[in-house]
Amino acid sequence: MAASTHGPVLFRRSFKVVGSDFLNAGSVSKDIKKALKQLNVDAEVIWRALIVSYEAEMNAVLYAHECDITLEISHSGIHLVFDDRGPGIPDIALAMTEGFSTATREMRERGFGAGLGLPNIKKTSDSLEVTSTVGKGTRLDIHILFPQAQSKAA
Amino acid sequence: MRLTEIMALLNADPLVLDDGMDREITSVHASDLISEVLASCSRGALWLTGLLDPQIVNTAELFDLAGVVFVGNRKPSGGIIALAREEGIPILATKLTMFETCGVLYGKGLLPGTRGR
């Protein structure tokens, strides 16, 4: 896999998102923001991690039944895993296309369903691996490298 | 441009004010799609929207936006206002349409929100 984080994990936290829980939607990303700020992570990296985590969290709220989220930080960067029980994605390549969306009218009325979620995650991260089984769920494995690790990888 | 000047230009009602009213704003997002704002998100930008959903406030807080202007005479619910107060996100509401609001602010030299700006 390209551009993955490596080295010992210095910080690990797990979170859970419940599908359709709009009242608490965004709270995992808020917790991630707090944790990364407390750990003095570079502002640009926090910014990228938040775009990724918020898009993935909202995808979980909108589409999944529930989702386990793991945040790991090493010297080289941030590793985020979103592992959901949900409908799965039948055609991952299509889901990665900007503008493609299976959002319902209700989701669109809430400001979601632009078909930009997964493309935003891919653009903003250093690597994104999507695996999915229809009827079971989807797993996003995401790495965001710290600037010094990025220049070493280049 | 300061939020207080923007409020006057748009003849907007201040629904939630905070200490950030004097913050300098240089860029603006005009969108009803949250992912669209995230895709081109610039720190400290002002967000114009007609979308009345609490996620607007959560998004503004997460991404350190300068504030939200609800356009087209839309009135946010008490829940949205309470959340904005809690999170310290300034909220304005104007009778001007999205088109008119963009025109006024663009004419005053504000720029579109662009990643990294």
Describe this structure in words.
The complex is a heterodimer of chains A (154) and B (117). Chain A has helices at residues 27-38, 43-63, 92-95, 105-109, 117-124, 147-153, and strands at 9-18, 66-74, 77-85, 127-133, 137-145. By secondary structure, chain A is an alpha+beta fold. Chain A has one domain (11-153): Heat Shock Protein 90, CATH 3.30.565. In chain A, α1 (27-38) runs antiparallel to α2 and α2 (43-63) packs antiparallel against α5 (117-124). The mean pLDDT of chain A is 93. Chain B has 117 residues and is an alpha/beta fold. Chain B has 5 helices and 6 strands. Chain B has helices at residues 3-9, 34-39, 54-62, 78-87, 98-107; strands at 13-16, 27-30, 46-49, 67-70, 91-93, 111-112. Chain B has a 6-stranded mixed beta sheet with strand order 1-5-4-3-2-6, sandwiched between helices. In chain B, α3 packs parallel to α4 (78-87). The chains are: A alpha+beta (154), B alpha/beta (117).
Attribute tags:
heterodimer, A: alpha+beta, Heat Shock Protein 90, five-stranded antiparallel sheet, 6 helices, 5 strands, B: 117 residues, Udp-n-acetylmuramoylalanyl-d-glutamate--2,6- Diaminopimelate Ligase, Chain: A, domain 1, six-stranded mixed sheet, 18% strand, globular
Fold blueprint:
The complex is a heterodimer of chains A (154) and B (117).
Chain A: E1 9-18, H1 27-38, H2 43-63, E2 66-74, E3 77-85, H3 92-95, H4 105-109, H5 117-124, E4 127-133, E5 137-145, H6 147-153
Helix pairs in contact in A: 1-2, 2-5
Chain B: H1 3-9, E1 13-16, E2 27-30, H2 34-39, E3 46-49, H3 54-62, E4 67-70, H4 78-87, E5 91-93, H5 98-107, E6 111-112
Parallel strand pairs in B: 2-3, 2-6, 3-4, 4-5
Antiparallel strand pairs in B: 1-5
